[in-house]
Design goal:
The structure holds 2 protein chains of 2 kinds. Chain A is α+β, with helices and mostly antiparallel strands. Chain A is built from 5 helices and 11 strands, in the order E-H-E-E-H-E-H-E-H-E-E-E-E-E-H-E. In chain A, strands 1, 2, 3, 4, 5, 8, 9, 10 and 11 form a 9-stranded mixed beta sheet that branches. Chain A has a two-stranded antiparallel sheet with strand order 6-7. Chain B has 3 domains: 232 residues, 3-Layer(aba) Sandwich (Rossmann fold), CATH 3.40.50; 137 residues, Transcription Regulator spoIIAA, CATH 3.30.750; 174 residues, Transcription Regulator spoIIAA. In chain B, the strands form 6 sheets. In chain B, strands 2-1-3-4-5-6 form a 6-stranded mixed beta sheet. In chain B, strand 17, helix 15 and strand 18 form a beta-alpha-beta unit. The chains are: A alpha+beta, B alpha/beta. Chains A and B meet through helix 1 of A and helix 9 of B. The structure holds iron/sulfur cluster. Iron/sulfur cluster (SF4) binds next to helix 21 of chain B.
């Protein structure tokens, strides 16, 4: 058996494909590629494909992680050659490597995610800067989401506004179980309607 | 999603707020996207329900592949938006658009709807309206696309006649190319819309309703369809392929979950059983089979192209496929060990079916479905479905004891001549079946009775029959609801008011078009959805047009009555249907015509095509 990690980009075609559906998309990709996935034990055996961290629906990504287990052993080149023609539109493989079977699950390794936000409109730079400063200097930022109150501030690891001809926001948000920051929430706090933006995940930070 | 069209830009803003936005962006695996300017003819196919239901539709899949194989044409698709998306689209001024190029439907040359059942009619009007295309054929200008329809419901095209320019009757695989060729030629010659439509009417199997005017008797019954254009053909014979063409293998694989995520393959078309209520059994005659190697090759290719984990082998009666055992064994041989689910619906009620299913059953084990339709001897003689109840019980026993925990049985109430005793017999047999289950596997045994209500369909022996009145249907349903409960028992039934609508539309005439339009204007859409169907809106629409639905549903029809659909020919003669209807009244059975031809008309009508096909592909025996 071997365990392989893929870094891939998720494009516009798959913007509205959620986590559960992505699992199926990958499962079928492996079937098309003729790669024999290992199955979990138990009453309802499931193919062993583990995604690192769900990408919220509506975003694209330059950095998604996925581990899969194969029953057979092949070289990375062989495996990639089979996968390439079988990919669902919207997926681009960026990198592949073999990881030890014993390594912790990807999900438990993710600590933070990095997002870049582009604006579909001419953004008022001064206003964004001001709000950012206010957010940075506050003690807490209590918000309600799905009826629950929480503090957004500790979930923001870093945030910066990059000025230029095409200004954008860059933020690193916590992404652990029970403490996941959402970019739309940050944007809302900055007075920006997220439907007027394009949000791209650009990195996942794993624990050491 | 193609960023560059105005529609795509507007969509970006509204999609985050609607349910399941993945329905509206296309981009599936195996989607065919051609350069718009590179082809002469642009065709949009519409399934008039939401993406989740329409995407797996086999008819669309077949034509999509057929058309896109041509160099000179492109075929794109669309489905209708769910309510929230429709509101958002109307507010943002987004017309109905195709999922490949994000082009408005109005920019295509041909827009083709598939109409497998009648409860999609209001969605057609809604789709046309959303596409900014005038509802009525007569109101359309030269620049508008040709609006056509095909599918099983179009064997009675009259209720929808004013809304379509052209109906394609029967199998579409060959005729669609003739339609495209004709439209291309017309366009090149600078023909007007009316001229194009007239030349389309010269293609066999094409019905152009505007070329005729229906005439009625004083009592409202149908008199004749009067041609108002001199060359209009007096009867339209359905198209069939002499041999089934290669099945589609590049199935669209969506990136979101839809109702069927599978490779669907027709192992044969047509049915020789002759159940008297069955519309599909008549309109798809004659039986034509695909060969075992053809099926295996197609499955192999389709699995490679899709990666699907499920295969459905489709036919109206799988057990009747000549080489069914060989096929099942070959499939198991070739595909076992791949964690595939294989479904084989419409099996005969006999232990051999359990053997077949046992071979196919993989890790994922569903229920076992059988369709006895009726439970009393009297009824099975009337409907011509030969099933001994002892056989049902022994088959059920075997199913439960060989590892299935649940059985689904389909019944149909309301068939001609049915009394409350016949309905009681359904309840009784269900109780006996679950008792068998308990004996075999105890409390784990489940029975699901799916009880539909008979709707008399055009072109069947029961086209003369009356629909049961609402109180009678309710009484029969209540009897069953009362008795089919308790541990392990489940019953589902059809909404009797929806049945009334389906029945009226099924045997309707052109006058019903006004009612359909009024109902749609009153807010009717998604009539096939339990939670959307609005009976009152429909009854108001009938009232407003001074039309009594009972005229179409329960009115007894005279044996000599001319029907509004008589000009559409399935190849089965009206004389044969009438004889079958009379036999049903006598409780006389008609055998499966593989054992001997009953002269239904198919062989005479299509003798030329019969000769073209390899001798063993048609299941109509050679006539002596
Ligand atoms: S022509 Fe004869 S064999 Fe063929 S479908 Fe009709 S009755 Fe059956």
């Amino acid at each position: 058996m071997q365990r392989i990690r893929i870094v891939y980009a998720k494009g516009r075609e798959l913007m509205f494909t959620g986590n559960l559906d992505m699992q199926k998309v990958w499962e079928r990709t492996f079937r098309r590629a003729g790669l024999e996935l290992a199955y979990s034990q138990g009453f309802h055996p499931q193919p062993r494909i583990h995604q690192a961290c769900p990408l919220p629906v509506g975003f694209t990504s330059q950095f998604e992680l996925l581990d899969f287990w194969l029953n057979t052993n092949g070289t990375l080149q062989e495996i990639e050659a089979k996968l390439q023609p079988a990919l669902q539109p919207g997926i681009t493989i960026l990198h592949m490597r073999e990881v030890p079977l014993s390594e912790n699950s990807l999900q438990t390794q993710v600590v933070a995610a990095k997002y870049v936000v582009f604006f579909d409109f001419k953004v008022n730079k001064q206003q964004v800067e001001n709000r950012l400063n206010r957010l940075r200097s506050s003690e807490a930022c209590i918000r309600t989401r799905r009826g629950k109150e929480y503090d957004l501030l500790p979930l923001i690891k870093s945030i910066s506004f990059i000025n230029g001809p095409h200004p954008y926001l860059e933020m690193i948000l916590s992404a652990t179980a029970g403490a996941t920051g959402r970019p739309e929430e940050v944007l809302d706090e900055l007075g920006i309607d997220y439907t007027d933006t394009s949000i791209v995940r650009t990195d996942l930070v794993l624990s050491e | 999603m193609n960023e560059n069209t105005e529609i795509a830009r507007k969509l970006k803003k509204i999609l985050p707020a609607v349910q399941k936005p993945g329905r509206y962006v296309g981009g599936e695996l195996n989607q065919v996207k051609k350069d718009w300017e590179s082809v002469a003819t642009h065709i949009a196919l519409v399934f008039p329900d939401i993406y989740d239901i329409g995407l797996p539709n086999l008819g669309i899949m077949i034509l999509y592949e057929q058309i896109n194989q041509r160099q000179d044409a492109l075929c794109e698709r669309t489905y209708v938006p769910w309510l929230d998306m429709e509101t958002a689209m109307r507010r943002a001024g987004i017309p109905l658009y195709s999922l490949e190029s994000f082009k408005p439907l109005a920019e295509f040359d041909i827009v083709g709807f598939t109409l497998p059942y009648e409860t999609l009619y209001t969605n057609v009007l809604n789709a046309l309206d959303l596409a900014n295309i005038p509802l009525h054929s007569a109101q359309r200008a030269d620049a508008h696309p040709i609006i056509l329809a095909g599918g099983h419901a179009t064997f009675n095209p009259e209720p929808m006649a004013p809304f379509f320019d052209v109906f394609v009757i029967g199998e579409g695989e060959e005729v669609i190319h003739e339609v495209i060729d004709c439209v291309q030629k017309s366009k090149a010659s600078g023909a007007t819309r009316a001229e194009t439509i007239q030349s389309l009417s010269r293609i066999a199997g094409i019905y152009v309703p505007a070329l005729y005017e229906p005439q009625y008797h004083a009592d409202g019954t149908f008199k004749e369809l009067k041609p108002v254009f001199e060359n209009a053909p007096l009867s339209i014979r359905k198209r069939i392929c002499s041999s089934l063409p290669l099945p589609p293998t590049r199935f669209l694989v969506p990136s979101i979950d839809v109702v069927h995520n599978r490779v669907a393959l027709e192992i044969m078309r047509g049915c020789t059983r002759g159940c008297r209520f069955c519309h599909a059994g008549i309109v798809t005659r004659p039986v034509r089979e695909r060969s075992v190697p053809d099926i295996l090759n197609a499955l192999d290719t389709a699995l490679k192209h899709t990666g699907y984990e499920e295969i459905a082998l489709l036919s109206l009666s799988s057990s009747d496929y000549t080489h069914i055992q060989q096929l099942v064994e070959a499939i198991v041989d070739r595909f076992s060990g791949r964690n595939l689910t294989i479904s084989l619906p419409s099996l005969r009620i006999e232990s051999f079916s359990v053997d077949l299913m046992e071979k196919l059953k993989g890790v994922r084990q569903g229920g076992f479905t059988l369709a006895p339709e009726a439970a009393s001897d009297k009824m099975r003689n009337i409907i011509n479905k030969l099933i001994q109840m002892e056989k049902l019980l022994s088959t059920a026993r075997e199913i439960y004891s060989r590892g299935w925990q649940s059985i689904k049985l389909y019944f149909m109430i309301g068939q001609p001549g049915e009394t409350i005793e016949d309905v009681q017999a359904i309840a009784d047999i269900c109780k006996q079946v679950i008792a068998e289950g308990r004996k075999a596997i105890g409390k784990r045994a489940n029975l699901h009775a799916g009880v539909s209500t008979f709707v008399p369909k055009p072109h069947t022996p029961f086209q003369w029959a009356s629909l049961d009145s609402l109180p009678v249907v309710l009484e029969k349903q209540n009897l069953l609801k009362d008795q089919l409960r308790g541990p392990g028992m489940k019953m589902t039934w059809s909404n009797p008011r929806e049945t009334i609508l389906e029945a009226a539309l099924s045997r309707g005439d052109r006058n019903l078009a006004k009612v359909i339009e009024a109902a749609w204007r009153g807010g009717a859409k998604f009539d096939a959805w339990q939670d959307q169907f609005n009976y009152n809106v429909w009854m108001d629409a009938f009232d407003a047009q001074l039309i009594d639905p009972e005229f179409y549903t329960s009115r007894p029809r005279d044996l000599e009555e001319v029907f509004p659909w008589d000009h559409i020919h399935t190849g089965v003669s009206k004389r044969y249907l009438k004889n079958e209807f009379l036999k049903s009244k006598e409780g006389q059975l008609t055998s499966d015509c593989r054992e001997g031809c009953h002269g239904c008309g198919i062989l005479t009508e299509f003798s030329d095509l019969r000769q073209k096909a390899p001798a063993d592909r048609w299941l109509c025996p050679e006539r002596t």
